[in-house]
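Please produce the structure of this protein holding NDP.
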Amino acid sequence: MPKILFAAPALWEEYREALPLALDQAGVAADLVLEADPASVDYIIYAPSAPLQDFTPYTRTKAVLSLWAGVERIVGNATLTQALCRMVDPSLTEGMVEWVVGHTLRHHLGMDAHIVNPAHRWEQNVPPLARERPVTVLGLGELGRACAQALAALNFAVTGWSRTPKTHAGIRCLSGREGLLQALTGAQVVVTLLPRTAETENTLNAETLALPARGAVVLNPGRGALIDDAALLAALDAGQIGHATLDVFRVEPLPPDHPFWHHPRITVTPHIAADTRAGSAARVIADNIRRSEAGAPLLHLVDRARGY
Ligand code: NDP
Ligand code: OXD
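Below is the modeled complex.
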């Protein structure tokens, strides 16, 4: 019977019922523990809050299973030689699609002007149709692709950008440095859904923030480090960027004195764009353990060299 160490004690309350149920439903008889002799552990369930940082003694561990999609806080851990799997979960994707579509529609339809209209102005500013609104999604992975497809289904003129070339119906797909410049040029909404790696840091900077249409909106549910904070503030102050809705930050919780809290054209959401929900995440973990125990390849493996 495999031994599974749940190494994220702060999350145990959320998972204490969901995990045994999911393991049972997957047909996996396992010993699920909160503490164990490292040499006896077959699988580790991990979150960035986990106190466990030295994986050296976990000599028989077949996989470390992250409850988070983004793995930048573990992928560079030199003691981690075991396989690392990240979270890819339909509920997480669904949540991200809702956040991205919701915040895109807010700006597309100009909702703010009607929600806050103390002078009761009758101003008929009719928005263009979605098909006339170019939206660029940086990152065409599990989350970016689903968001791009949902926006395209609403008729937005969607461009997606990724590291390797892609083809997705209804989406103009670009890649590479030249592709980034093309993808950003003239965009009216830019969504950043890249992982944080050495290559993606400051993807939006003074140079690239100058490319979208004047007054464009930036939505960042990816990671704070994808954007150069000072360049974003300068672009907002200059009117080049009209609004930024930010869910993730270099430091979280966002410190109370951070200028993002106080800027009139920044909306802060507190890293809630897509939550990992225990019920569905437990099923993903249980299914991966079932596969591994049956000798099938693990799903959602992180490529350590790539960093995501
Ligand atoms: P994936 O790994 O599935 O996709 C990543 C995408 O980014 C891929 O299309 C990849 O390209 C592209 N990419 C990576 N590096 C580069 C690069 N150097 N240049 C161009 N494109 C690049 O990740 P997910 O879609 O599952 O998640 C994306 C991120 O979303 C996570 O890493 C995490 O940071 C964030 N996240 C935020 C949440 C929130 O609540 N705010 C919740 C969950 C995740 P290619 O396809 O060619 O490999
Ligand atoms: C994640 C996140 O990476 O919540 O899962 O940001």
